[in-house]
Amino acid sequence: MSGPILVFDSGVGGLSILDEIRRVLPDQSYCYLFDNARLPYGELEEQELIDGCEALITATVAQLGASLVVIACNTASTLVLPVLREALTIPVVGVVPAIKPAALYSQAKHIGLLATPGTIKRSYTHSLIQEFAANCQVELYGSSELVLLAERKASGKQILQGEIAQLLSPIKVSGIDTLVLGCTHFPILKDEIQQYLGGGVLLLDSGKAVAARVSSLIKEESKLNKRQREGYSKEMIALYTLEIGEGLKKSLAEFGFSTYSKAQTG
Ligand code: DGL
Question: Where are its TM segments located (predicted)?
Answer without folding.
Answer: none
